Amino acid sequence: HNHKKFPGYDPDEKEYDASVHRDYIFGDHVAEYMRFLEQEDEESGTKRLQEQFRTYVDAGVTADDLEDMYIEVHKAIRADPSPKHEKSHKERTANVTHDKKYKRPARKTYEQRK
């Protein structure tokens, strides 16, 4: 990999700052956005944090917990890097049928439309 493509590279200075890249890997930019939404929700009374980070909020993960969560995830991946599923998503969903409330009618032939 070329370090020029990673976050933290400054093309003007032609220097790479690894700490910026580390912050991106461990979700510091996401935590910062969560803090921003939390502050905005308090000021305006909206529920944008709940809307955009519902699974994190339901799991009790706050902006301060994100880095620890990513560290644990990375440890778990290093411990067992095998894929979670034996088959790909496409193979797992190949035989799934969906109950549709509305089914489009079959296209009529020219003779049927007359």
Termini gap: 64 Å
Number of strands: 2
The number of distinct helices, counting runs of at least 4 residues, comes to 7
Mean pLDDT: 90
Task: Estimate what percentage of residues fall within beta strands.
Answer: under 5%
Q: What is the element string, with H for helices and E for strands?
A: EEHHHHHHH
How would you characterize the largest beta sheet? 2 strands, antiparallel
Strand order of the largest sheet: 1-2
Uncertain residue ranges = none
Reconstruct the topology from this structure.
Layout: E1 9-10, E2 15-16, H1 18-25, H2 28-44, H3 48-52, H4 54-59, H5 66-79, H6 89-92, H7 110-113
Antiparallel strand pairs: 1-2
Write up what this structure looks like:
The chain has 114 residues and is mostly helical. A two-stranded antiparallel ribbon has the order 1-2. The chain has helices spanning 18-25, 28-44, 48-52, 54-59, 66-79, 89-92, 110-113; strands at residues 9-10, 15-16. It contains seven helices and two strands. 4% of the residues are buried. Helices cover 51% and strands 4% of the residues.
Keywords:
mainly alpha; 114 residues; 51% helix; extended; 2 strands
Give a short synopsis of this structure.
The chain is 51% helix and 4% strand. By secondary structure, it is mostly helical. It has a two-stranded antiparallel sheet.
